[in-house]
């Protein structure tokens, strides 16, 4: 008999990140299971807070002063035993707290007290008699009989045009009864049928290999348009037939409309959809639909990996190379790694898919840890587009100062004349659009963040992309007073403007962070372009992935160099991925596609190999560089990032930690300590930022020792500084 429980309390402080033992009261002994949420008294004042049961014990050695659990919160367990194993594993791996792991697994709604949404519905009660056996009562009774327990009073009154007071009278005499119905908050809009396709030989081989293999991890390396989605859907069908469940992850929100359209169009509405734009209530309901076994398939962004399926057969991670699978808040998990952990814990298959696999994943295929499967042809027989590299330095020599090279301009003109669609890609992230003085070199920056400001022509203001602060446009340089203030680089807005100036009759749509903030705006832009109501789609990364528009024959990459010049060891990999992915949007229908890539570095290996569609050679060159420089996958990089509003306190503390770490780790010749030094973005929203990078080969024990050193030595300053530890972070800016 378990009389004690090991509990994580719902308190975010790092100091209480440990399992506390509580005694289970007599009446709950048979009820409580691992994973239950309970109320417990906590701290000196015995304040009542939520706790999560991670362990149960029969005996406890030190029972002096032990407190009792006060109550059980839900009639179901919010965590499964498998989740508890996952939590313990993630806490070590991602150097975070138990609570942070719990909170990423359960929907926020639970601790916030969100419950099912219920609606009052009317059903029939006693048979009508006496003076009620006539209209309007008779009519109302018949209506309710036909729609028993479906509508509320007002709905009946409005829909069938009957009097509300008559309904109330009938309720009073118990001829009608009030009841409650759970309303599920999710999008149950219907989608048109997405017919099943007969797999081609390549696709069939991939499916068969997965089904036959006794391995658990696979990479489908399939060129853009090779029909990976069809393979996933075929696998889902196999899983459903075996009564198993599937999770399909797609990168961030941007891909969901198309995927949802395809999956709901194929499998109907019984699919959970899980992404960051859902409200707390919607998340809770989708989570509960999974928990209550109402659905067998879930599609979603990163956090859908945690949905509580009980008989999980497979996890698909589409576009596995995507940076958005790594979380940048605690726990700083990577869905790919969590997928692998879940595979082991729940004994399911993990299928990664990409046209441009991450270097880490492909390297593991080479080493034989992941089974490599390839799709080399486009599924519907289309050809890969022709990719042309344009050297922008030569354009300048030819006196073309426009943002469009001659090739791209002519291509746009031709496509427009042929009534074909065009996609123009610009990676505006990074430091592309800055405003500076041509006379003295002054660059307009945000006072809070040390980041160059971006010009927004709609509204005519400058803004900081990190903190959002707005500044007025200035015509004169504040430093030297000259009037030669110029905009350098371009943003998506600028391209839209240039298109309108150069091709006034073209219908242009823009898709980027600014135009997709509202809940359904992405879907709106997607549908408008898909239905041919626009000729040109201008966009950022959002348009590079997955989208399948048949009438796009031209793709233009406005400035391939923007991603190449980021201070990041993954810059080459990211550039290869971006060019390949965005090129893959061209020529997906009957007509051939063309791609124009504009660059100032035409000889760079990632640009060269992406234009040749040569992943293998790109990989060889890149893995060589990683090896020589001792970058991942040959090492790990643990970044210790500390920020504070108080710069002196920050510097004093990080230097102290730096010295201690150097003393402890110096003897380990496989580890390099870089810094402490200010981050590339040395100030964000009034917070100064410094970092230490620890690069090398180290295991979880060393990482966890480093975590201890950092936290113990900064203990006195917890209230004034923020600490962030991240292993193999996506950006070290
Ligand atoms: P990927 O995800 O690999 O880029 P998609 O799954 O979007 O490719 O497929 C590209 C196109 O090929 C889609 O329009 C899809 O409907 C079509 N397709 C996929 N498989 C087949 C098939 N077996 N026969 C015919 N068309 C197919
Ligand atoms: Zn100046
Ligand atoms: Zn700012």
From TrEMBL:
Catalyses which reaction(s): ATP + H2O = ADP + phosphate + H(+); Couples ATP hydrolysis with the unwinding of duplex DNA by translocating in the 3'-5' direction
UniProt family annotation: Belongs to the helicase family. PriA subfamily.
Name listed for the protein in its UniProt record: Replication restart protein PriA
Gene3D superfamilies registered for this protein in UniProt: P-loop containing nucleotide triphosphate hydrolases (3.40.50.300), PriA, 3(prime) DNA-binding domain (3.40.1440.60)
GO annotation terms (biological process): DNA recombination; DNA replication initiation; DNA replication, synthesis of primer; double-strand break repair
EC number(s) given by UniProt: 5.6.2.4
Assembly and binders: Component of the replication restart primosome.
């Amino acid at each position: 008999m378990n009389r004690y429980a090991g509990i994580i309390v719902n308190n975010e402080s790092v100091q209480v990140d440990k399992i506390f033992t509580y005694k289970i009261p007599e009446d709950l002994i048979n009820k409580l299971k691992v994973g239950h949420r309970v109320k417990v008294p906590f701290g000196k004042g015995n304040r009542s807070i939520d706790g999560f049961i991670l362990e149960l014990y029969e005996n406890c050695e030190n029972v002096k002063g032990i407190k009792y659990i006060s109550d059980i919160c839900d009639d179901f367990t919010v965590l499964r035993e498998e989740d508890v194993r996952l939590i313990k594993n993630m806490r070590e791996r991602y150097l975070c707290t138990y609570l942070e792991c719990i909170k990423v697994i359960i929907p926020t709604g639970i601790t916030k007290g969100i419950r099912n949404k219920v609606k009052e519905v009317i059903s029939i009660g006693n048979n009508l008699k006496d003076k009620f056996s006539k209209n309007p009562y008779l009519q109302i009774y018949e209506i309710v009989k036909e729609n028993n327990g479906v509508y509320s009073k007002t709905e009946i009154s409005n829909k069938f045009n009957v009097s509300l007071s008559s309904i109330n009278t009938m309720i009073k005499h118990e001829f009608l009864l009030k009841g409650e119905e759970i309303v599920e908050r999710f999008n149950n809009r219907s989608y048109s049928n997405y017919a099943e396709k007969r797999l081609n030989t390549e696709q069939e081989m991939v499916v068969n290999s997965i089904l036959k293999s006794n391995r658990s991890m696979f990479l489908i390396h399939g060129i853009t348009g090779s029909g990976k989605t069809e393979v996933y859907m075929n696998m889902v069908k196999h899983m459903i037939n075996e009564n198993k469940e599937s999770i399909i992850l797609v990168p961030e929100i941007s891909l969901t409309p198309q995927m949802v359209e395809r999956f709901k169009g194929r499998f109907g509405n019984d699919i959970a959809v899980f992404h960051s734009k859902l409200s707390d209530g919607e998340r809770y309901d989708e989570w509960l639909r999974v928990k209550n076994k109402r659905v067998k398939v879930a599609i979603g962004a990163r956090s859908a990996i945690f949905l509580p399926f009980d008989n999980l057969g497979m996890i698909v991670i589409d576009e596995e190379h995507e940076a958005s699978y790594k979380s940048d808040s605690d726990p700083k998990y990577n869905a790919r790694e969590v997928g692998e952990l879940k595979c082991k814990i729940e004994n399911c298959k993990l299928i990664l898919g990409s046209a441009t696999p991450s270097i880490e994943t492909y390297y593991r295929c080479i080493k034989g840890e992941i089974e490599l499967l390839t799709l080399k042809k486009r599924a519907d027989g289309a050809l890969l587009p022709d990719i042309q590299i344009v050297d922008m330095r030569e354009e300048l020599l030819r006196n073309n100062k426009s943002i469009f090279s001659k090739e791209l301009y002519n291509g746009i003109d031709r496509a427009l004349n042929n009534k074909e669609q065009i996609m123009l890609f610009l990676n505006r992230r990074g430091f592309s659009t800055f405003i500076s003085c041509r006379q003295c070199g002054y660059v307009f920056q945000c006072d809070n963040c040390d980041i160059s400001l971006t010009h927004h022509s709609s509204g005519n203001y400058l803004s900081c992309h990190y903190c959002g602060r707005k500044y007025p446009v200035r015509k004169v340089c504040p430093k030297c007073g000259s009037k030669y203030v110029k905009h350098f680089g371009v943003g998506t807005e600028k391209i839209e403007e240039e298109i309108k100036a150069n091709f006034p009759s073209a219908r242009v749509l823009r898709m980027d962070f600014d135009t997709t903030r509202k809940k359904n705006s992405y879907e709106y832009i997607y549908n408008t372009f898909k239905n041919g109501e626009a000729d040109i789609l201008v966009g950022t990364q959002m348009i590079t992935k997955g989208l399948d528009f048949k009438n796009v024959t031209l793709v233009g990459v406005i400035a391939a160099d923007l991603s190449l010049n980021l201070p990041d060891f993954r810059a080459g990999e990211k550039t290869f991925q971006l060019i390949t992915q965005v090129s893959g949007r061209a020529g997906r229908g009957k007509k051939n596609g063309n791609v124009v890539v504009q660059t100032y570095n035409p000889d760079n290996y990632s640009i060269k190999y992406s234009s040749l569609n040569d992943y293998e050679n790109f990989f060889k060159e890149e893995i060589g560089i990683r090896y020589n420089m001792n970058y991942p996958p040959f090492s790990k990089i643990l970044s210790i990032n500390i920020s504070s509003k108080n710069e002196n306190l920050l510097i004093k503390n990080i230097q102290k930690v730096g010295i201690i770490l150097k003393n402890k780790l110096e003897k380990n010749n496989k580890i390099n300590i870089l810094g402490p030094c200010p981050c590339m973005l040395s100030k964000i929203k009034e917070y100064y930022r410094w970092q230490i990078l620890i690069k090398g080969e180290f295991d979880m024990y060393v990482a966890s020792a480093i975590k201890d050193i950092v936290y113990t030595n900064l203990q006195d300053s917890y209230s004034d500084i923020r600490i962030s530890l991240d292993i193999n972070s996506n950006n070290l800016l």
